[in-house]
Amino acid sequence: MSATRAEPARRLAMALEPVAGQVYFSPECHAAYAGLGFSPSPGTSSSGVEFPDGPAYFTSRGSVMGQVPGAVVAAAFAVFNPEAVVPSVEFGWSKVDAPTICDARTAGAVAQLSRVLGPEPEGLDRATDLLRVAGVPLRPEGKPLYAGLLSLGLPGDPMGDMWRRADLLREFRGDAHTAAWTAAGLDATEIGLLTELYWGLPLRTYIRTRAWSDEQLDAAEARLVARGLVANGAFTDEGRALREAVETATDAQCAPILDALGDGLDELIEILGPWGAAIRGAGGYPPQGPHELAPPR
């Protein structure tokens, strides 16, 4: 995909991220999960964002696929260490069933959006319709989290329907990204390290949130060095090109979204942008998200 096509795909991803992804930082979600037997939020960032409890995160997000084993959740999430995911999900299913925590997830996401934006923010109906149009050509094959969300249908209320449609597009891109980096011959630890460099972060910073051990990261970095992708803790030209190719392949899988939206893309971004800023201002999502760290080059 050319840079002219990658740029709108990534602009849409940036606009969607805080609106859809706020579910993972919603105090209403954390409280609901605690009521189901999980631990509350383990802490708050300097910007006032509440972090999710690990088992609650894995179980709630995985619940969109049904009450599947932890190994299936680990495969779908892809970048997390299965040694952390599998026992977390096993613990989760000992506390709650999939429909119950999935409903709590939806209710908590909608509650935060309604609290921050109001129950019917300006442009809600139009945004929902544009998100619907964007999703019309999308197909579920090879997209487990997208397919799981698709199987749920819509919540049936205006804010819930908008959020579900935004979450569908977010998970579609996430599934597409997994397909892109696995097709490039990378594993979860390797893509994690390359992504840190791609975002301009020091090695072994963000990837710590994915629960990999020092030994696992040592081995992954050694493999990247042997392949000529990393040297002295930085990209080689080949490494940067490969990581950009992964992102471009992700963008290419999202091309049907852009084609369906047409001129509506800019209108959708104009609606979502102020919502995302308001959500961040209220501590509902971190000040910066992953897609903003990876602009088209």
Write up this protein.
With 297 residues, the chain is mainly alpha-helical. Helices cover 65% and strands 1% of the residues. The chain has 14 helices and 2 strands. The chain has helices at 3-21, 27-35, 54-62, 70-77, 82-95, 98-117, 124-135, 144-152, 158-183, 188-198, 214-226, 237-253, 255-261, 264-281, and strands at 230-231, 234-235. The chain has a two-stranded antiparallel ribbon. Strand 1 (230-231) and strand 2 (234-235) form a beta hairpin. Helix 1 (3-21) packs across helix 14 (264-281) and helix 6 packs across helix 9. The longest helix is centred in the middle third of the chain and has 26 residues, at 158-183. The model has no long low-confidence stretch (mean pLDDT 95).
Topology overview:
Blueprint (H helix, E strand, L loop, with lengths): L2 H19 L5 H9 L18 H9 L7 H8 L4 H14 L2 H20 L6 H12 L8 H9 L5 H26 L4 H11 L15 H13 L3 E2 L2 E2 L1 H17 L1 H7 L2 H18 L16
Antiparallel strand pairs: 1-2
Helix pairs in contact: 1-9, 1-14, 2-6, 3-5, 3-6, 4-5, 6-9, 7-9, 7-13, 7-14, 8-9, 9-12, 10-12
Oligomeric status: single chain
Give the percentage of residues in beta strands: under 5%
**C-alpha geometry:** globular
Mean pLDDT: 95
- SSE sequence, one letter per element: HHHHHHHHHHHEEHHH
What's the main sheet like? Answer: 2 strands, antiparallel
The parts where pLDDT drops under 50 for at least 5 residues are: none
| Structural Rg | 19 Å
User: What's the β-strand tally?
Assistant: 2
Q: Cα distance, first to last residue? A: 12 Å
Query: Strands of the biggest beta sheet: in what spatial order?
Result: 1-2
Give the class from helix and strand content and strand pairing: mainly alpha
Number of helical runs?
14
The helix fraction, in percent, is 55-70%
